[in-house]
Amino acid sequence: MKAMILAAGLGTRLRPLTNDIPKPLLPVGGQPLIYHHLQRLKKYGITEVFINVHYHGDKIIQKVGNGDRFGMKITYSEEPEILGTGGGIKKIQTALGTEAFFVMNADILVSLDLEPLVSFHQEKGGCATLVLREEAEVNTYGVIALDPQDQIRDILGKVRSKEERGMRRLMFTGIHIIEPKVFNFIPSGQFYSIIDAYIEMLLQDKRIAGYLMDGYWNDIGILERYEQANRDFKRGLVR
Q: Which of 22, 26, 46, 237 could anchor a disulfide with 232, C-beta 3.0 to 4.6 Å?
């Protein structure tokens, strides 16, 4: 399985930390955040990785390199104009190939066993599997409605007018496994969110599964969470 790390964000909410350094290179536990992602992918046998870059992209390319130090092959997709989570994936459609691939945001810190996730995706047989988690302040992140059969029924209230009984209210972690058929719902050469593609797919009754993760997750998009991530790492809460 190939993987893509979405690393083109501007990091505006972390300024001034990100004035001269992109979020994926911010140190967590003594090394750049993106190194944690690469090491996790390598641990589970994923060695061909694509990284899209925009803001200070040259620094990411210089720091991470071609993947030799990780025993991986790393290819960069440079975006002179940022394309969003969907547009960035669409740009390298041909390179990602004709099999399912793994995608994750670069600005999270996570402990996640990928083997059961891949098995779950294969078992459910949907167009995509989104990794979800419970969150007390789920409305802040946006509600994903998951039914008892692990199928996503609503995203951000844009598919169903009201939630049905038995639905779980969860949040999306920025980690997913995508089948190539999802490309049919993403326009080429423009800014587009993968979430909008998923919403359109649900409106057309396509199957999208939700995998409830058990483990550490933190979005380091703001200063308080970034500082918390470093404290958690020192306390051994992150595998």
A: 237
